[in-house]
Specification:
Blueprint (H helix, E strand, L loop, with lengths): L5 H4 L3 H17 L3 E9 L12 E8 L4 E7 L13 E6 L2 E6 L4 E6 L6 E4 L6 H13 L7 H20 L3 E2 L1
Antiparallel strand pairs: 1-2, 1-8, 2-3, 4-5, 5-6, 6-7
Helix pairs in contact: 2-4
Organism: uncultured Chloroflexia bacterium
Protein name: NADH-dependent dyhydrogenase
InterPro entries: Gfo/Idh/MocA_Oxidoreductases, GFO_IDH_MocA-like_dom
């Protein structure tokens, strides 16, 4: 199908995952991606695949913080879901670990004696849809703009350029 055809899809696992992760990085930290380094490959778990199905990316943000991404479609058949969406933030005061499919955030604070769990319910898409409907009803600008999409795409394309060049790419 089109999803695994490089000419039709425009990219593979790196394109599929990176645009969303860059959106999150920009939203959570209010920062821009300033540098990307990537290693990208095809056929890791799917021999004969001609589009990237795995990639490891490193990002540098305008705040000086760093992020990494495992952009992969290469989960074995025994994996509990088709994939996973996990984010781990390590900071001076502790660690926050988000698992989108388990619908909770685990917080490990240096001040707390045990982990704290924050649940957000069964429908992670509700806020996105609600915002879209409210934008129409209230006749206001969207919360997510075309420029947000462009910034995410810019970092994603920089990842592909980095993989081809074998070096970090400045944005």
């Amino acid at each position: 199908g089109w999803f695994s055809n490089p000419e039709l899809a425009g990219g593979g696992a790196v394109m599929d995952h990176t645009v969303h992760v860059v959106d999150l990085l920009r939203w959570f930290w209010g920062a821009e991606v300033t540098e990307v380094y990537a290693e990208v490959g095809a056929g890791l778990l799917h021999p004969g695949v001609t589009i990237d199905d795995a990639g490891i990316l490193s990002f540098k943000l305008s705040t000086g913080a760093y992020g990494t991404l495992d952009a992969s479609w290469s989960r074995p058949a025994a994996f509990p879901t088709w994939g996973d969406v996990t984010i781990e933030v390590v900071g001076e005061k502790g660690v926050a670990r988000l698992d989108a499919f388990k619908q909770h955030l685990a917080v490990y604070s240096n001040q707390a004696t045990k982990a704290q769990w924050v649940n957000w319910g069964s429908d992670a898409d509700l806020a996105l849809i609600s915002d879209f409907v409210e934008m129409i009803v209230e006749d206001r600008a969207p919360s997510i703009t075309g420029e947000d999409g462009l910034k995410a795409l810019e970092a994603t394309l920089a990842a592909y350029r980095s993989a081809a060049a074998g070096r970090p790419i400045q944005i």
